[in-house]
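cron nightly-structures :: item 1 of 1
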Amino acid sequence: MHDIIAKTTLTAITAVCAFLPAKAQTAVDSIDIAIDTPGATLAATLTMPAHAKPRAAAVLVSGSGAQDRDETIMGHKPFRAIARHLAENGYAVLRYDDRGAGQSSPLRGTETTDTFAADAAAVLAALDSICGHGIPAGYIGHSEGATIAIRNAADPRCRFIITLGTPAMTGDSIILTQGRAMLRGMGAESQWNTLEPELRRRYDMLKSDLPAVLLKSSLYADIVKSQPLVAEMPELRQKAMAEIDAMCSPWYRAMLRYNPEADIRAVTIPWLAVGGALDTQVIPENQDIISRLNPRATTVTLPGINHLMLSAKTGLPAEYPTLTGDIDPAVLDTITRFLNQLP
């Protein structure tokens, strides 16, 4: 496996490694480091108890799209809140800017979830090296980060995983159930009967082996067939082509094809899966699938919580900017209780 280089000063590394005996405390320390992975350098922050040896250590893995180390979404910074909370409770946390975000290397446009899973594995290796093999290390992943945590759970360095808003269906099913849940939340579920066949047809095209050039022309023709104005209005045509380009990316096509069933069944280490009862992006039924496929997993579905792990009224993404806070205290408490029970 590729060597991992954590670039930081000798003084900082010494501070990380020279932990005192564990004791109750609330102060935390943070150190910025850089981690070399195959094809990229990731900028990261290690947050830890200031006066104690960590009980365990976790890598935070963000959801889809280029996210910064705080997983900043519409003003909310859940990863920053998780890191602070866990450090105050005796745990070390390493979070990083994804490729294409913050101070990390730019995206090349060829990445898939496999690429991001390799990045997460490199970060876990760096954390394990910094903290020492005697401290249990694992992942806390949100959305696509949850998928990555599950896929990387077989790594011998990984001693536990915590997943938030965890996809347990095939990628196309996640998107389809998301669409229906959002229409239902807007009081427009009746539109689903018309929309679903169109979406399934396009996703089948995207899951095929058609080359991107042919795929883009086929998708455009299919969209114009159902929405003739797209061909007549330049602004609509430009928007449609931008959406087609995004859907034809290697990441999106691989995401639609991916079936997590075998990976979910294969997890044997301690696993906490936290879901929100108001999640409209990864609907709560995914929690039931996890329980069925892997009875060893601990699943907790919290009432009133949306996909961002925030208290909400509807769970719809349109509500996200109006919500307060970074992450609900009930989510933090659930994570901490699980970590406190690790062997």
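cron nightly-structures :: done
Residues 113-131 form the longest helix (19 residues).
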